[in-house]
Fold:
Amino acid sequence: MSSLISNFERAEVLTEALPYIRRYNGKIVVIKYGGSAMTSESLKMQVMEDIVLLWLIGVKVVLVHGGGPEINDMMDRLGKKAVFVDGLRVTDKETVDIVQMVLAGKVNKSLVNLLETKGGRAMGISGMDGRLIEARQKDERLGYVGEIVNINIDPVMDLLEKGYIPVISTIGSDAEGNAYNVNGDTAAANIAGALGAERLIMMTDIAGILRNREDPSSLISEINISEAAGLYENGVISGGMIPKVECCIEAIHDGVKNVIIMDGRVPHSILMELLTDEGAGTMVSGENGYQRT
Structure:
C-alpha cells in the first residue's frame, strides 16, 4: 500500500509541476554556480541532476561557474598565497595562468563530464572562446582582474541552438590577448542580459536577502529594484550582498525577467524555485512586480 501511495504522490508532484514545465519550455535560464555547492560532491551531483532534468523538459540552461576554492587549493599546492583587495583576488601574471588552468580546464571540464554522465549534452567554453567576454583591467592594484566591456553572445546561442548546455568559465580577454579573471556574478548577469534570459539564478552560501542576517527565517521572498534601494539605505543589504544585488539589478535593466538569489547548499533548490509554487531564496524583479507564479 505504501508503494502505491508513494507512486500516487510522485504522479501528483509531476502534475503540479506541469504549468511550470510549460512556462519554461524553450526559455533560457542562466545559473551562476559556485561556492559551497561546488565543494560538496553530493550537492554537486544534485545540481547537475537538476540541470539535466531541466534540459530534458526543454529548458535552455546556461551554466556559468566559478571555482574559488579550487583556485585557492591549486595556489596552496604551488606555494602561492592568495591576496584580496576589497573582496577581489589580486591576480598577477602567474595567478591568472593558474586561474585559467583551474577554471577553464579542471573545473569546467569536470562539470561538463558530470552533466554528460547524468544524461545531458554539454559543451564547455571559457569567456576567451569566440571573444565571449571582452574585458579590460579593472584596477592596477588588482593586476589581471577584468571588468567586462562587451559580451559576444553568438557562441552561447550557437550551442543552445544545437541542443547543448553551455558551461562557461569566467575568463575574459582583451584585444591584445591578455587573460583576465572576471567576477562570476558579474559575468553571469551580463551573459543573462545579453541572452534576454527568463531567469538568472545565483547560487550562494546564504538563503537569500535576510532582514536580519542572524535569522534565516527573516528571508525576504520577493522584492523589486526600488524596494532593494530602500534596503540599501536601511542597511539590510550590506557587505557581500551589495555586489550580488547590484548584479541582479544590472541583469534586470539588461532585460532579464527575474533574478533569484538562493542557497546553493539546499538540495534541489533549483527545482524548488522553477517547478513549485513555493520557490526558493529571494526573487528580485523589475518595477512591474513579481512573476514567481
